[in-house]
TrEMBL record:
Pfam families: MBF2. It comes from Operophtera brumata. This is Uncharacterized protein.
């Protein structure tokens, strides 16, 4: 089901366009895709999420936080078992003149429930560290 919030005008600026393509899964819960974005200095005025393949794509979009009148948003795409996610997300807005700085994210405290590093982690090369992740 498409999601359309707000009113589009030709004066709006395209803040982001994303195409999401995930193959179908056979799990009874289906699959979920999370789209989260922040647009410092801009106010979201129009959100449009639509499916590209009507027959094979059964993704439903829902706005969970943020949205119209804010600079952030969180959209959840959910597809039932044996349905793929093939959707396009378009976000439009206006500049609000308030240029805020985004603080850098500290990745040292982040953990993933789905990815784990291999048993042997390679040594550091300068400031970069190389990881290969495996899904379990």
């Amino acid at each position: 089901m498409p999601l359309e919030v707000g009113f589009w005008k030709h004066t709006l600026k395209n803040l982001d366009s994303a195409v999401v393509e995930n193959k179908p899964v056979s799990m009874s819960e289906g699959q979920v895709y999370v789209y989260e974005n922040s647009f410092p200095g801009y106010t979201v005025k129009y959100i449009h999420v639509d499916n590209l393949a009507v027959r094979t794509c059964g993704a439903r979009a829902s706005l969970k936080s943020g949205g119209i009148g804010t600079s952030t948003l969180l959209i959840i795409l959910h597809a039932d078992a044996n349905q793929e996610i093939r959707s396009v997300v378009d976000i439009w807005g206006v500049e609000d003149g308030k240029r805020s700085t985004v603080l850098p994210v500290n990745f040292n405290n982040m953990k993933s429930m789905y990815l784990q590093p291999p048993a042997e982690v390679p040594a550091k090369f300068g400031a970069r560290q190389i990881f290969e992740f495996s899904i379990f």
